[in-house]
Amino acid sequence: MAYTLQAHGRAVLVGETTHGGAHPTARHTVTEHITVTVPTARTISTVTGTNWEGVGVVPDLAATSEQALATAHKDALRRAA
Fold first, then answer.
1. What distance lies between CA 2 and its chain's CA centroid?
2. Exposure on the CB side of residue 79, measured as CA atoms within 13 A
3. Are the beta carbons of 43 and 23 closer than 8 angstroms?
């Protein structure tokens, strides 16, 4: 949802880059010790033509998780002025 809102210019993302798991998967047991994970879908943005698989969702304002709320608050005050 964050990627889509950002791509459409409907949100400013603040925080850290996500891990980049855009494709849902299903696990299939092959043997007792082997499991295969297979992608079952692929999200493609109509705006960007791609998704966040492997690269993550990159925030507009980078901040540590501890500082994200304060950074967002400062940015909101700046935009309101």
1. 6
2. 8
3. yes
Per the confidence metrics, is the pTM higher than 0.85? Answer: no
> What secondary structure does DSSP assign to the chain, as a single string?
-HHHHHHTTS---EE-------S-EEEEE-SSS-EEEEE------TTTSS--TTT-PPPSEE--TTTHHHHHHHHHHHHH-
Share above pLDDT 70 across residues of the chain, in percent, rounded to a whole number: 100
Beta strand 35-39 pairing with 14-15: unpaired
Amino acid at 59: P
* Tens-place pLDDT, residues 43-67: 899 999 999 999 999 999 999 999 9
| Calculated CA dihedral for residues 44, 26, 36, 51, nearest 10 degrees | 20
Q: Nearest 5°: CA angle at 33, between 30 and 35?
A: 45
